[in-house]
Design brief:
This protein is of the alpha/beta class. It contains 8 helices and 10 strands.
C-alpha cells in the first residue's frame, strides 16, 4: 500500500509501496527514524487513515473501500488502541473508562467483565479511581484494559511506554507479552525504544516510507545497532 499527501511537485509519499503482514498471535514492533512512516503505517493498518493505493485487510476483511460508518464499527469491535498519552477521560473512573468502547458500540457492558479485565492488568483495587488518582503506569494499564475489553482481533500500540518511567514501562511490556503468549493476542507496536522492540517477536525497520530491514527475536543491542545505521 502507499499513502501520498498532496499532488504534483509537492506530493509526499508517506508510505511507498509497503507490503506487510502482521502474523496472528504474535507481536510486531515497527521502528525507524523520525518521519520514516511508522505511525502512518499503523494508522493505515488500523483504518484511521485511508491508503492512497493498495489494499488493507483486518482479520481477513478488506477495509479499503469501507464507508466511514463501517470503519468506525470495525475500530470499535475488531481493533484495540493503546497510545502514549493514555487518552483516558478524566471525569470517568477506571471501570467507566474501560467500559466506554462497549457503550460506544451500543452494548451494555458487564460490570463483572470490566472488573475482570482490570484485575488482569493488576488494578482490581483501583476500579473506582479516576485518572488523576492513578500513576502514569496505572493509567496506561487502564488504557490496555480498555483495549482488551472488546477482545479485538489486533491491538495497535503507539509508543505505549513513551510517557512512563523504566519500571512502569517494564510492567506494560510484560502485560503485552503476556497477552500474546497467554491469550493469543496479535499486537503491533510503534516505538523508538530498542527495549520495547526487543520484547517483540520481530522488528520491522522503515526509512522514507519503505520497509528496509527486519529482525526476528532480536536483542536490544541488535535493534540499537540497526537503528543507528538507519539514522546515520
Amino acid at each position: 500500500m502507499s499513502l501520498i499527501y498532496g499532488r504534483g511537485n509537492t506530493a509526499v509519499r508517506a508510505l511507498d509501496d509497503v507490503t506487510v503482514a502482521f502474523p496472528s498471535r504474535s507481536w510486531t514492533a515497527v521502528m525507524g527514524p523520525s518521519g520514516s512512516g511508522k505511525s502512518t503505517l499503523l494508522h493505515c493498518a488500523a483504518g484511521l487513515e485511508r491508503a492512497t493505493q493498495g489494499r488493507v485487510l483486518v482479520a481477513g476483511q478488506d477495509i479499503t473501500s469501507a464507508t466511514d460508518r463501517e470503519l468506525t464499527q470495525l475500530r470499535r469491535t475488531m481493533v484495540g488502541f493503546v497510545f502514549q498519552s493514555f487518552n483516558l477521560i478524566g471525569s470517568l473512573t477506571a471501570e467507566q473508562n474501560v467500559a466506554l468502547p462497549l457503550r460506544l458500540a451500543g452494548k451494555r457492558p458487564s460490570r463483572r467483565a470490566v472488573r475482570e479485565v482490570l484485575a488482569r492488568v493488576g488494578l482490581a483495587d483501583r476500579v473506582r479511581h479516576r485518572p488523576r488518582e492513578l500513576s502514569g503506569g496505572q493509567q496506561q494499564r487502564v488504557a490496555i484494559a480498555r483495549a482488551m475489553i472488546t477482545c479485538p482481533a489486533i491491538l495497535f500500540a503507539d509508543e505505549p511506554t513513551g510517557a512512563l518511567d523504566t519500571q512502569a514501562g517494564k510492567v506494560v511490556l510484560g502485560l503485552l507479552r503476556g497477552m500474546v503468549d497467554g491469550e493469543g493476542q496479535t499486537v503491533v507496536t510503534v516505538t523508538h525504544d530498542p527495549a520495547v522492540a526487543a520484547s517483540a517477536d520481530r522488528v520491522l525497520f522503515l526509512s522514507d516510507g519503505r520497509i528496509v530491514d527486519r529482525l526476528e527475536r532480536p536483542s536490544i543491542q541488535q535493534v540499537s545497532a540497526r537503528l543507528a545505521r538507519l539514522e546515520e
